[in-house]
Amino acid sequence: MSQYYDSKDLPRFAEMGTDSPELWEKFNAWYEACFRAGALSEREKALIGLGVAHAVQCPYCIEAYSQACLEKGSDPEQMTEAVHVAAAIRGGASLVHGMQMRNHVHRLSM
Amino acid sequence: MTSLLQRSHPLGKAATQRQQIEGTALRLRFDDALARSGLRPLVATGIETLQINVGKLCNQTCRHCHVDAGPDRRESMPSAVVDACLRALESGGIPKLDITGGAPELHPQFRDIVQRARALGRQVIDRCNLTVLLLPKYDDLPEFLAAHRVQIIASLPAINARQTDAQRGGGVHEGSLVGLRRLNAVGYGRDPELLLHLVTNPVGAFLPANQSALAADWKRELKQRHDIDFNDLYTITNMPISRFLEYLLQSGNYDSYMERLVNAYNPQAAASVMCRTMLSVGWDGTLYDCDFNQMLELTLEAAAPRTIFDFTPERLARRRIVVGNHCFGCTAGAGSSCGGATI
Prior knowledge:
heterodimer; A: mainly alpha; AhpD-like; 5 helices; B: alpha/beta; TIM Barrel; eight-stranded mixed beta sheet; 8 strands
């Protein structure tokens, strides 16, 4: 394998249904329902998707949700803020674990 | 930036554009898509709008312009063609005159055309780029347009300057806001008789957002940030022709954009395409099914009249529409037309 990620694989995503069609259909139905407008608009949901895509660092999701955000009417400024929110949560998640460090240090220290 | 024609760019020729679009290997050709939807041949259902392209002169040189318009273009509708258009408007009983360009207001007979069409009792649409209102000789245009109850369809691709300027040129966003304030000041977007619609084309190789959802956001934001009012927002898909085609090819987005359009083909949108109820007239009087076919020099089917001088409604109202792969631009997603989404 010359590389782990290839953008040409993204449109082939549906091949994941080849050997397990029932699970693929269930995933698809749930996935589509998640992104339909509800209490949140489709635009807001796409922005959340973009933020999460960065948090989980999935290049496929980043490509898909960058396009989705633009096509749902978000602009680059709003999208950049969404990525900052994701980054802030990730950074904060690391930092808040410092409390565990402090607890351990407290337990072990005189 | 100058026009493709001025730069002697190969895409300045309609034939080169047609070769590019028709020579692209798509998984489905537009003609076949229509057949699958039971719409082949695509036939007109009447003429509700006469859209006249009065010329290619414009004070802007937008990167997505399907007309290849700009300050260096000189094509302008002669008065004999103007007269023939107005005769057709009257004799054909066509209710709506849609004036486009270029910047149509720069045509020497623009006001004359408006006055004569309004005297016939026709609804008149001006496709305005907003910055034309800031030119020294045109500062009384808002009052003129308001006095004649002209409906304005104004271009504004984004509510942020970076995107608007990226598409339409440096400083255009700020100028457009000034133009909008001037239109608001004479009642446009506020007086129910003075309709001001905005039109947005995506700033890049992607499809437009949901029209009604975007309109709600824009109304709120333009009001809050700039105290600007407008009536409706029209989302229009960029056509893979002329300068937008140049952008697609230069940026490496051409194949994926065409694929996106084909994958988003919507039979419902295909049934509602604007060409079925519109007749388009070029600056020289040649007839077309739409402004996009006009720029690709795809004239009407052979059985139909060639020019506005031969206008015969009975031979035009049920004509077969001439289509090509570029038509996927009007049938993607919620559809696209000069009046925005179609479904």
